[in-house]
Amino acid sequence: MRILSLIRKVINSLVTKYLIMNNLIKFISVSLLFLCGNLHAQNFQGVATYRSKTKFEVSVDSTSMNSPMQKQIEEMLKIQMDKTFKLTFDQVESIYEEEESLAPPQPGAVMFAEVSFGSDNLYKNLKLNRYTRAEEFLGQLFLVKDSIQKYDWQLTSETKQVGSYLCFKATYDHEIDLSGFGTFIPDEDEVEQEPQFRTITAWYTPQIPVSNGPGEFGGLPGLILELQDGNTNILCSQIVINPSERIAIKEPNKGKEVSQSEFESIQHEKFKEMEENRGRPGKDGEHTITIKIGN
Fold first, then answer.
1. Sequence-ordered list of residues with C-beta below 8 angstroms from that of 281, at least 6 positions apart, any chain
2. Model confidence at 277, in pLDDT bands (50, 70, 90)?
């Protein structure tokens, strides 16, 4: 009996030690996985390439504008409206930059635009909920700093494949600016118009769990790979996750610092001044070119 009792005690002791050791191994394994996961999340980085295309129409209100000249204007606009962007991102920061176009200037091109804007250079910090955008306007560089806009996305169960990623559909009803130019502020004596809306559609993938996307868009449980906003379509053509060489995400720091509303006021005043200096269009000997983009 004593021998059996001793054997039982030895077995129980070995079993207890085995269970303790097994639990310790499991604990260490889980801890290592958790640690590696956190390290991977901290080092996680991606680069998404987007192609942006905008449909437009040019209508000429003069017999002095011949068909070849109109075609030339349309070709120039097409170059301006079809752009390529790169979004470099991690789980907190991102930079959205336009790739430089190498298209040569066209000889004899008609200068139809008096205002030029710098290429998009948009920095976002999701943790601090703020953005910085470098914007060139009439030869002056601005740093537009403000809070990231919150979009009231309506999530749906509709899906589609974008490349090798399964994407879900989300929509947002956006109020259209009826002031005649995207940044104009209506004058006090203008008749108030009923608000109009258009639907922005985004396709995001939870396979890349980053609440980001092209331009100012984001706020979804996954990276936005495709977006339709009026007549503008933005499509992701390539994604590189954790590139071999890490890319520095740097916030723009050159230019006059203003808020979004301050920048829009500056634009409005300059456009108003240009309009007054130019006089009303449609005088004798002048022709009018109307360019309609989106809605």
1. 288
2. confident
The reply to whether 5 falls in a domain is: no
**In sequence order, which ranges of the chain are alpha helices (DSSP H)?**
2-43, 67-81, 260-278
Q: What is the pLDDT of residue 100?
A: 73
> How many structural domains is the chain composed of?
1
Distance CA 269, CA 254 (A): 23
SS3 255: coil
The most confident of 74-88, 104-118, 205-219, 269-283, by mean pLDDT: 205-219
Q: Check whether 22 has a pLDDT greater than 60.
A: no
CB-side neighbour CA atoms (13 Å) of 236: 28
Residue 262: pLDDT over 50: yes
Question: What are the DSSP E strand ranges found in the chain?
Answer: 46-54, 56-60, 83-89, 93-98, 121-125, 130-137, 140-147, 154-162, 165-175, 197-205, 223-229, 232-241, 256-258, 289-293
Answer whether residue 172 is part of any domain. yes
* 33 pLDDT higher than 50: no
Q: What is the DSSP letter of 160?
A: E
Residue of 262, 150, 158 whose CA lies nearest to 217: 150
Q: Which residue has the higher pLDDT, 123 or 182?
A: 123
Predicted confidence (pLDDT) at residue 263 exceeds the cutoff of 80: yes
Rounded CA-CA distance 239/230 in Å is: 25
Position of tokens 């004058």?
187
Tell me how far apart the alpha carbons of residues 186 and 169 are, in angstroms, rounded to a whole number.
34
Q: Other CB atoms closer than 10 Å to residue 259's CB: what's the count?
A: 12
Please name the residues in contact with 45: beta carbons below 8 A apart, sequence gap of 6 or more: 88, 89, 90, 241, 242, 243, 246, 247
Contact 98, 115 (CB under 8 A): no
Whether the predicted model's global pTM rises above the 0.85 cut: no
Residue range(s) defining the domain that contains residue 104: 45-293
Strands 130-137 and 154-162: unpaired
